[in-house]
Structure formats: structure tokens, C-alpha cells
Amino acid sequence: MPSIDARLPLTCPTSHELLHIGLTASAEPTGTADSPGQPPADSGPGDAQDGSSGSRSASELASRLNWLRAGVLGANDGIVSVAGLVIGVAAAAPTNTGAIVAAGVAGILAGAVSMAAGEYVSVSTQSDTEKALVARQRAELAHDPEAGIDELASHYRAKGLSPATAMTVALELTAHDAVGAHLDAELGLREDDYTNPWHAALSSAVAFTIGSLLPMLAIILIPVSVQIPVTFFSVLIGLGITGAVSAHLGDAPVRPAVLRVVIGGALAMAVTWGIGHLIGVSV
């Protein structure tokens, strides 16, 4: 049996008591506990701050990578969507520049708004879920703080810590920030780091618009005699770049990612070109 029972109180103190008495338990099997009135070692607060700083840095880095990856994918969607649209119209009416421009502009506006609305709804749902989880965790700890300590200790025991060390960690983290400790350990969340739906919506709309400019400018600026094949290959190059960047951000193999987006984009443009060509011939 671990020797923790000989060193800790029979009932777990509340978070309020921990903050006042600075109770700590030694993780060494043969050690002794500090006296109730003795404050924790000087390294405790520093360690907590360092851990918080590390957690915040990791969270911020992950958030930036997610936004960047979403931006790359949004640009990819813009390239494919508008390329298929303008190539289809150009196949039906190759000399009707006005119709090609109108179709491209309409596709850019509709796609950007659609992407922004979709991201806003999706991320708003995610943010609401995160806030609900935080509120639930806070209510549970307010109702039964002792159970919260036991739950936190159980989590760290499952991670491989000894019962004594797990209880020590749970007590000290609870004294520092009970809600934050549970959110980080059990849900991987931070209370002050909710996902912003407006940022997601704006990022998606801008990325889609930037990506769509490649096929739009290519189909307009290139002579009619070669506008479709040149636009086709320009789009494939753009898709290859976005696929490579996306794979790099996700630390995934580059070649399969590039092949997927290039083949998918080529099929989309081929289908729209075929439909536009048939419509143009029938007219």
C-alpha cells in the first residue's frame, strides 16, 4: 500500500483551505509532509507559472497553425471553384469576355460569403461548446471540490504517476487554479482561449478570394486561343503549391497531398469544361 494515507489528511481539503494553508504532500515514499502552516517550496509557484506559460505557448502555436492550415485550404477551394466556373463558361462562349468575367466575379463573391458563413457557424458552435464545458466544470468543482481533487489525482495516476505523486500534483494544481487544472488535464482547454468565429470567417473569406484570383486573372489576361489550357495548367501549379504547404503544416507526406489536390482539381475543371463545351456546341 502506498504510504500516502499516513501523510495526508483523511478528508481532502477544499480549494479555499489549500490556498490559505499551502498544504503539500511529499512524493517520496519515505518522506514526511510539510506542516500545515508551512508554505510550499519556492519552486512551486515558479513551476506553475512556467507550466502555464508553456501550455499557453503550445496552445497559441496550435491555434496559429490551425488558422494557417484553414487559410491554405480556403485558398485551395477558391482556386478549384472559380477555375471550374470560368473554364466552363469559356468553353461554352470563349469570345464572350463579359460573361466569363461576370461568372468569375459572381463565383468569387458567392464562394467567399458561403465560406465565411460556414466557418462562422461551425466555429461559433465549437466556441459555445467550449464555454459550456468550462461552465459545467466550474459548477462541478463548486459543488464538490474534494471530488474534484480525487478526480484530478485519478487522472494523473492513469498517466503513470504513483498515488502519492498524483495526489501531490492534484493538490498543488487545485490550490493554484482548480478549474484550469481540470480543463487542461481532462479536456485540453484553456478558459481564456476560446476560438473566435469572426476570425475564422474573415480568414476563410480572404483566403478563398485570394485563391480565386489565380484562375480569374489567368482566364482574362491570356489570349482566347490558349486561355483554357494555360489557365488549366496554371491552376494545377497553384493547387500543387497549396497541397504542399498544407502537407508541410500538418507534418504529412507532401507527394500524396499534392497528387490528391491536383488530380481532384483537374477532374473538376475537366468536367466543367466538358459541360460548357457541350452547351456551347448545342447553342
Automatic annotation (TrEMBL):
One of its GO terms (cellular component) is endomembrane system. GO terms for biological process: intracellular manganese ion homeostasis. CDD domains: Nodulin-21_like_1. Coiled coil: none annotated. Keywords: Membrane, Transmembrane, Transmembrane helix. It comes from the Bacteria. The chain crosses the membrane at residues 73-93, 99-121, 200-222, 228-250, 257-279. It is a multi-pass membrane protein. GO terms for molecular function: manganese ion transmembrane transporter activity. It holds the Pfam family VIT1. InterPro entries: Ccc1_fam. The keyword Ribosomal protein does not apply. This is VIT family.
